């Protein structure tokens, strides 16, 4: 492989992989899901499922990618030539592209609100943030234009390649994300009544746990590490053979959990301090939080910090979603990469236009009572991503030789045999059952047990 198409360091790989995981799932979806599922108990279950489901799947993708040194589709072909298994890579490309098509819509909203906050326009509506949000996302020119700008940022970074694009962007964005979150948490914890929010997040009440809570926590663990779309196969293919996969996995999972915790500590104390409901819903960021920060000293400045942090997290995830497709078509040809990134990015933009218009011109449900935006979200998050995870859990222990697994998991650690045994047990027995339960939840079969 071209050395320019490899991470320059383990840190670069870890920050990029963590950046791929940390985004809407950790900062937007987790607070919303935790708010709907009782807080502390959901967080504990999320941690448990991250370790027993997310980690084995993450390692599986790392083993496939690093052992072959190829992007997703070529990696499956190298391990199982002349078979249908390469369809997993194509499924991953399709999943990532669909996710990016509506993900970029939300990324555009963040850019709009960052502009509003910086220019002061956000604070000119007498705290009627609900009406402002509705007017903004229903305006077709604003919604589509912002989506296009967000995708341009994503295309630009991916077109620069692994070292000058993906790695360099994450080296700056991820540390800054941590710093901004620490600033927000310090301010959030100074609110009167903030400790109620901390208690809600960290004090589990398992009496409130239902079957739905278990399934939601498993789904959150799956999505938080971006496993199932073969994105991490592509990222790990750029990793040197000298680096430890187990240590990298430990670092990435730890960073993802920490950012998820920081997001909760930044949001829930403020929510409780202002007397709002933790289950505010998906409009939390754009309606509830502006109201909170508008009514506290220096709140407008801190909300800008929050939006910057959220934009960075969203952008790093978007980069990974575009990268899996660009790498598959460019085949490490750095000269073709900018053109391919532009073409694929524009195709994603066109596909995502109906999602951007789902809150205005195309607000009427089109199927199963869902808008185009909701359908894209449901199809990718609840069907395609779990399906990809299930297929990877079947493929890895079946097709990747035990010798390769032992070699990949033993590099850089004295406890390789422990990792190998634990991985085989979890990937063979625990992960498939857990993912199947998620599928049962999607189709409503699991409701029979409630």
UniProtKB/TrEMBL annotation:
Spell out the GO cellular component terms annotated for this protein, sorted alphabetically and separated by semicolons. membrane
Where is this chain's protein located in or outside the cell? Membrane
Question: Which InterPro entries is this protein grouped with?
Answer: Na/ntran_symport (IPR000175), SNS_sf (IPR037272), YocR/YhdH-like (IPR047218)
Q: Which Pfam families match?
A: SNF
By its UniProt entry, which PROSITE patterns does this protein fall under? Answer: NA_NEUROTRAN_SYMP_1, NA_NEUROTRAN_SYMP_3
Which family is this protein grouped under?
Belongs to the sodium:neurotransmitter symporter (SNF) (TC 2.A.22) family.
**Official protein name in the record:** Transporter
- Organism the protein comes from: Priestia taiwanensis
């Amino acid at each position: 492989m071209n050395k320019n198409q490899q991470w320059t360091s383990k840190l670069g790989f870890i920050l990029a992989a963590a950046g791929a995981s940390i985004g809407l799932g950790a900062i937007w979806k987790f607070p919303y899901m935790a708010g709907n599922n009782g807080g502390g108990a959901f967080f504990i279950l999320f941690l448990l499922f991250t370790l027993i489901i997310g980690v084995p799947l993450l390692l599986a993708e790392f083993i496939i990618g690093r052992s072959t040194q190829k992007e997703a589709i070529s990696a499956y072909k190298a391990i199982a030539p002349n078979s249908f298994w390469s369809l997993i890579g194509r499924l991953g490309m399709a999943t990532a592209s669909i996710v990016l098509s509506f993900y970029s819509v939300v990324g555009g909203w963040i850019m709009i609100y960052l502009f509003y906050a910086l220019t002061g326009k956000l604070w000119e509506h007498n705290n009627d943030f609900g009406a402002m949000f509705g007017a903004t996302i229903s305006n077709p020119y604003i919604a589509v234009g912002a989506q296009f700008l967000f995708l341009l940022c994503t295309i630009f970074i991916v077109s620069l390649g692994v070292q000058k694009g993906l790695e360099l962007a994450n080296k700056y964005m991820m540390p800054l994300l941590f710093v901004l979150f620490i600033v927000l948490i310090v301010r959030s914890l100074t609110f009167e009544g903030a400790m109620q929010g901390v208690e809600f997040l960290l004090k589990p009440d398992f009496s409130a746990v239902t079957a739905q809570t278990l399934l939601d926590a498993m789904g959150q663990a799956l999505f938080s590490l971006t496993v199932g779309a073969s994105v991490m196969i592509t990222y790990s293919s750029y990793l040197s053979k000298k680096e430890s996969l187990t240590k990298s996995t430990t670092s990435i999972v730890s960073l993802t959990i920490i950012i998820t915790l920081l997001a909760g500590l930044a949001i829930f104390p403020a929510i409780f301090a202002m007397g709002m409901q933790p289950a505010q819903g998906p409009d939390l960021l754009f309606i509830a939080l502006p109201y909170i920060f508008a009514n506290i000293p220096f709140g407008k400045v801190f909300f800008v910090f929050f939006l910057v942090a959220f934009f960075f997290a969203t952008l790093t995830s978007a980069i990974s979603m575009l990268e899996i497709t660009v790498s598959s078509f460019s085949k490490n040809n750095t000269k073709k990469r900018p053109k391919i990134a532009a073409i694929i990015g524009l195709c994603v933009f066109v596909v995502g236009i109906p999602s951007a218009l789902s809150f205005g011109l195309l607000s009427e449900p089109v199927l199963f009572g869902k808008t185009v935006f909701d359908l894209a979200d449901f199809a990718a998050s609840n069907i395609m991503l779990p399906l990809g995870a299930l297929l990877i859990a079947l493929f890895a222990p079946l097709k990747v030789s035990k010798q390769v697994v032992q070699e990949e998991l033993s590099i850089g650690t004295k406890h390789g045999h422990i990792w190998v045994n634990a991985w085989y047990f979890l990937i063979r027995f625990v992960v498939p059952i857990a993912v199947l339960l998620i599928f049962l939840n999607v189709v409503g079969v699991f409701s029979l047990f409630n």
